Amino acid sequence: xxxxxxxLEILAGxxxxxxxxxxxxxxxxNLPDPFSIPSMEKAAARVLCAVRRSxxxxxxxxxxxxxxxxxxxLRSVLNSLGAAxxxxxxxxxxxxxxxxxxxxxxSCTGTxxxxxxxxxxxxxxxxxxxxxxxxxxVVIDHHRIQExxxxxxxxxxxxxxxxxxxxxxxxxALKAGWSDTKVERLLSGCSPYxxxxxxxxxxxxxxxxxxxxxxxxxxxxxxxxxxxxxLLKSACTDPSQPDSRDVAFGVAPRINAAGRMAHPVEAxxxxxxxxxxxxxxxxxxxxxxxxxxxxxxxxxxxxxLVDSIGTNTPAGLVVYRETSPKGIAGLLASKCVERYxxxxxxxxxxxxxxxxxxxxxxxxxxxxxxxxxxxKELLLRFGGHAxxxxxxxxxxxxxxxxxxxxxxxxxxxxxxxxxxxAEAELSLRSVCRHxxxxxxxxxxxxxxxxxxxxxxxxxxxxxxxNRWVRIRQGRSSIEALCWDVPVTEHMKGDFLVEFYGKTRIxxxxxxx
Length: 512
Description:
Elements: H1 5-13, H2 19-23, H3 40-52, E1 57-60, H4 65-80, E2 86-88, H5 100-109, E3 113-117, H6 124-132, E4 136-141, E5 152-155, H7 161-175, H8 180-200, H9 207-220, H10 226-235, H11 244-261, H12 265-272, H13 277-309, E6 317-320, H14 329-340, E7 344-349, E8 355-361, H15 368-372, E9 381-385, E10 388-394, H16 398-415, E11 424-425, H17 433-440, E12 453-465, E13 468-473, E14 476-482, E15 492-500, E16 503-511
């Protein structure tokens, strides 16, 4: 496949050897056999047995986008198999993951088989309690293993939780003897949810996850589901052709807003709407309202947080503010990474007296789980993956943790280039519709497959409108969204521009 030279340079720099395979439109056959994932066969057999015996099945998800969509995928396939599972999503105040209190709740309401998704792999004590209370647990999770629960666990770090749920749904369908047509209809139906979660959850968009996300994005625009259609209308620049930026900055934040500002069941309601257009519109309107509240809350608290940090930023940032809602801790940590270019953890008060909870976000090359593992004596619990973690600790240990964390990340931060670097030079004369189409072939963008970044030399800002700037080089120009780069008209120099799907983002400027 022919590509322009700058894009070839970028793929070569990223170690992509088989360019044709990377760019070729995928098919379902490009996904790995679901039974190649460890314990998939055993887990699928146990769930199908429960369905056939009419056992009481419960699905336990999480309060974020990945956990919500993973639970929806499992509920949908179980319904198709003839089961009527109870789906439970925890409120953020209940804390992350399967707890003893949650297990007791399932026991009291009647459960024979509990399926966890996007959590559970490290819930050793809670799983043991469930087994003592007389019900089985199947875990579907992708988080880093610390103290693995002793139960049937479908685990892989190659997918997000919803991606694993989609692979599990596929395995159930195959084991149930569904026809090829019915299996493909299932994959078409659940892949959009897996794609949204994969882009939202900071998992590397490479290999099988990239394939699943590309398939899901294509299906997303074709979906007849009224909830998805209304969500795309609200969140996407072009609902008929949603890209990864639409998902990352439009769709996923609206789903996450429910768990951050209210309860995750408000997001689940969107996907329960099915073909009911009015129910879909009302539930999406509610998510839009929560998302507006979320954006305002983050803006206010981040401004206060920046004032409290000052100018002397350590190699690793740990911030505790008693007034910060814990539902936005991860968003504040992400904004700290954007502002200060260092791994950041934001802590907020817990509902348990004397404890704080927090979320961390990292920079490329710094694995937060590996950083926190030697510091676990300072923590009550933690978990996650390389770029995003959650943790709980005693309020009295914050100062010690802050100092130790900064010392621990300093060598990695120093070794990792924190300044956003260009991957290739670009002449604006070559930027045309054909070039934009070629950039879209690299989609979806996200963790592990970042949007391409180009250096545009000897250019000038010819206009500034709100956050949009027009950059001219010779007779050619492009418009870009300004991202924390102070610009004025007639600025001349070298510009660092990121091509994120259909949007260009100005990331840096060097005057000449």
